[in-house]
Structures are given as structure tokens and as C-alpha cells.
Amino acid sequence: MAVDPIEKKPLFHYRPGEDILSIGFVGCNMDCPFCQNWQISRTTAAANGFVPPEKIAEKALELGLKQIAYTYSEPLVHAEYVMDCMAAARSLGIAGALVTNGCFNEEAAAEIIPLADAANIDLKCFSEYNYRNTLKGSLPAVKNFIRAAFGKIHTEITTLIVPGFNDSEQETDACIDFIASVSSGIPWHITAYHPAYKWTAAPAKAETILRIKERAEKKLLYCYTGNINDNNNSTFCVECGAELVTRDGYNIKIRGLVKNGKSDNTYRCKRCGAATAVKY
Ligand code: SF4
Fold first, then answer.
1. Which atom of ligand 1 is nearest to the CA of 28?
2. Ligand 1-lining residues (CB < 6 angstroms)
3. pLDDT tens for each residue of 180-237
4. Nearest to 164 by CA among 131, 201, 191, 197
5. Is 156:146 a contact under the CB 8 Å cutoff?
């Protein structure tokens, strides 16, 4: 359990600049050979004992936090527990954010998603063969999960770029096309892999990540990088180009947003008045 900036999940358009209570879990239903959290995803030994769901919600309240992330490895291995946590937190006015590989069947997704408020879902590659054989997951299940989440809860997508595995133009363009087919407004986080677990290839280069971002920006409105030095990760108004949210690492400044109404969680651009994709 830790308190993180919400941008670390990463969630860039949901409550930017706020902290989030983050709960980690042991185990995972996939087995990515480059897992960046393998110390917890490949074990069944939890560092702490059972914590009742209502205690987690109370902890968030005690810390003055309005949101909880279920994150680090794969929270939905413990779906029933996460659902109990999200329900307990919601009864106290605390939002729930899933950071998930999305590799769950439609029946599970239909039960879980309505209890969440936001999700960052991994789209690890666009090859069914590699999803099944290398990652021990299912591309069709992930695509369905993304489609099921979008429109119901705030949705962002992350792809970890692993050189030689998913960094070809063909593969990344297929990811871009799929995201655009759901919505060009879904924020896409393109993050750089570092050697971990069984994968020893060199880290993804910054220029590879930036090249993919440049191509993605032709079809997607909001593309962000991760794990590289990039001073261009701010959020801009799609109508007038004003800087809405300035990001310098985890130093976040809300510059160009105006709330739409007292009981409204949406914001408009301070300069031109256009609707923005940022929600609180
Ligand atoms: S889905 Fe995530 S936590 Fe699970 S093995 Fe893959 S990278 Fe690790």
C-alpha cells in the first residue's frame, strides 16, 4: 500500500495532480517474460495479511485521499476482493481506479467495470499469437475489455514498448488503429521497457518511443510517453492548443481548466471554452 501521484498509474486525464492510495496484489493471470513487477506478480506470498475492504476505504479517508488504485501487478486476479473494496470505497465517496491487463472474460468485465470509475488497461501487442504463446494471455479478451470499459468509465491505455517484440511499425500501427476504432480521444501511454525478469534485451530507446508517438498523433488526440525523458507530456486543448495541464515529471500544474459547474466533474478550456477530456 502506498500513496502515489495519479500520473504514476498512469492516469493523465482523471483527476490530474491528485494523489491516489495504491494497493498492490500478488500473482497475475498472465506471464509476460519482461514483467516489470515480476517480484510481486510471480509470487503468492503477500507481504501483509488480509486487510478487510472497509479498512482500505477508511485508510484513504484518513489520508484525505478521494481515490484508490488497484495496481502494481494484476488486481483482478483477486476480482471479488477488489469489487468489495470498490463498493466499500464508493459508499464513502471514494473513487476506484483499475490498473489492469484487461485479460478477463466478458461476464467478469460486466460485473467489475460498473464498480470502477477509471481504468488504465494494457494493450501489450497486437499479435494474437504472441499474446497467447509469449504472454499467456488473450488479445480478443483484452480488446473486449477495452470496448466494455470505454464510455462506461474513464479509460486510458498503456503499451510497454519492448524492442524486437512489439516495436515494429506494423504492430504499433495496429495498436493505434484499434484504439482509434474505439475512440481517438482515449489517452495512449507509450512506455519504454527496461530489462526485467526473463527478458535481457537492451531497454527501449527514447527515439523509438518518440517515433511511435509521432505516428500515433496522426490518429489519436492524446499520446504520452513513459520511462523516458520527455518534456512534452503536457495536455493541450484540441481546439486552440492552450496548455491545460503542465507536466514536468510528476510535477503537475493545472493551468488552463475551468470547471463546468458546481456539481459537474467536467472542465472546459480557460482560453477558448472548448470541452476538455479532463475529469475530476
Ligand atoms: S500482465 Fe502485468 S503484472 Fe502480469 S505478468 Fe504481464 S506485466 Fe507482469
1. 4
2. 28, 30-32, 35, 37, 41, 73-74, 101
3. 999 999 999 999 999 999 999 999 999 999 999 999 999 999 999 999 998 889 999 9
4. 201
5. no
- pLDDT tens figures, 174-186: 999 999 999 999 9
Please state the atom number of ligand 1 nearest to the C-alpha of residue 41: 3
Percent of the chain clearing pLDDT 70 (strictly above): 100
At residue 50, the pLDDT reads 86
User: Ligand 1 center to residue 104 CA distance, Å?
Assistant: 13
Smallest Cα–Cα separation from 114: which of 86, 75, 92?
86
Q: How many domains does the chain have?
A: 2
Residues 145, 254: one domain? no
What's the 40 CA to ligand 1 centre distance in angstroms? 10
User: Within this chain, do residues 208 and 270 fall inside the same structural domain, yes or no?
Assistant: no
What's the domain range around 67?
2-230
Are residue 69 and residue 21 in the same domain, yes or no? Answer: yes
CATH code of 172's domain = 3.20.20.70
Ligand 1 mean position, distance from CA 166 (Å): 15
∠ CA 233-15-32, rounded to 5°: 65
Place of cell 492524446: 222
Pairing state between β 67-71 and 95-100: parallel
The Cα–Cα gap between 71 and 25 comes to 7
pLDDT for the residue 44: 84
